[in-house]
Amino acid sequence: MLSLARAGATDFARAEHVRLGLDAAPDAEARSLSARLLKDVALEARGARRRAFARAAAHRYVQAAAFGGGRYGLVNAATMSLVAGDARRSAELAAAALDHAGDPGRGEAGYFDRASRAEALTLLGRHAAAADMLAQAVACAPSSVSAHASTLRQLTMIAAETGGPTDWLEILRPPAAAHFTGHMFAAGDAAGEAALKARMADLLRAEKIGFGYGGLAAGADILWAETLLAAGAELHVVAPVSLASYVEISVRPFGERWIERFEACLAKAASVRFASRDPYAGDDEVFAYASRFAVGCAILRAEGLSTRAVQAAVWDGRPAVGPAGAAADVAYWRSTQRPQAILPFARPEPDARAPAGASPERGRGVKAMLFIDVRGFGSLRDDQVPAFFEVVMAGMAEAIAGLAAPPEHVETWGDGVFLVFGQPAEAAEAALSLLEAHRRLNLRARGLPRRLGLRIGGHYGPVHLRVNPITGTQAVVGAHVVVAARIEPDVAPGAAYVSEAMAGVLATSHADRFQCGYVGRTKLRKSFPPLSIFNLSRR
After folding, report:
1. What is the Cα–Cα distance from 62 to 86, expressed in whole angstroms?
2. pTM above 0.85?
3. What does each C-alpha distance from 384 to 413, 447, 449 come to in angstroms?
4. How far is CA 119 from CA 86, 98, 108, 138, 159, in A?
5. Which residues contact 239 (CB under 8 A, 6 or more apart)?
6. What confidence category does residue 256 fall into, taking pLDDT thresholds of 50, 70 and 90?
7. What average pLDDT does range 245-257 have in this prediction?
8. What pLDDT is stored for residue 322 in this prediction?
């Protein structure tokens, strides 16, 4: 439930909390979770609703403190009292939080204890003392960037409520997350490589980059990877195709020496993601998709840590001549209006010939997909099935018909629906419109159980567009269709979860309309590795 709350699926988390009886459980953890859910509603609301939910959250945090929640419960109660408009009560609780006994310790426990003290001091307007305490907190756990980001969001929210300063909070700001890219080039010029890596290292320090996402092709990619690792930053690799094929297309042709360095970087990478696990089929669009995937991962990481996203590029300044490559990456990032750090790079006029490999496969496209089913359909009585189609399925049909960008492809079977769109934003709008339409249905009036809830899984990736030889109609098939299908069973009823690839594109280009909160990873299934999933909601 905490993962659901963090992801933004607050309504479902609250419903489950009540269903499991945790709202009345006499322990600090359950009361703190109940308070956290109320707090989330308050911070998303405005006016009287905001104040009412903040008061309720403060009350639950006080209960948590009474059941052993200690300083954490008291300081959160103080903050929620401030949001509720009760400054006097906020100050009383903040003072009580400071007076609470306890050994602060070291490590993360010491961090959170001192961060809670800093929050209480902030609520009391003692900003110099709060800054000193915050510095002590960070010293306890300097590498706990997720904890720093959580505290940063909390103290920034308090500053917004009080009009207080925020510059002293920069000590909490995690390192930047970067998308790195650059040209491929042959091995051989050791002095030139060393000079370029020195410039890369200077750039990483100047931009305070701690996380890097990108490919691992010969040339600039591998140099970026080596420089990130040498600086102690996290390296996250996004491979466009299977590793063996990637080496043959993008590493070996530029010199055997790159292969050992490729393997060394891969072994030290914090994670490896795949745009496709298949061999290269001559379609450069999969390389462009991999770059967009890496860009999205960097931006999602930055958003999750409340830090900056920046692109670090080695580029010769020439415009793109195809869908993939350094110039295309630079143009794609620039369209997001986020900061870029570009290292100029001199190289000969590139060869205009297509890379070696098979001819591009026809009937391929990169699409956004939704799989939808209805929880509880299988337990309906036979006499309820007609009403289900007349109400639930008809409601979905009406919502789909009202979309400004209708799906390019539709399939249905039983209560299942498969929709395909040209762009992730179109699929995201469809998913949320379907959920909103379903919530408006009066199920009980037609003799249907209220537990019927939509579950929607979404993904964005390359697919095969074919004609079904049996029906003669279009078919959308491939490994990425399976990815979308595998997400849906893990979705909380009444929610839409999307893959990291789809969440990344939405964060990159549509953050003003949609937000995607990290939920966790899908369950392990035979022949299908777990993947990160995000709860989709409106801004």
Report:
1. 15
2. yes
3. 17, 7, 9
4. 17, 10, 16, 14, 11
5. 215, 216, 246, 272, 273, 274, 275, 290
6. very high
7. 95
8. 84
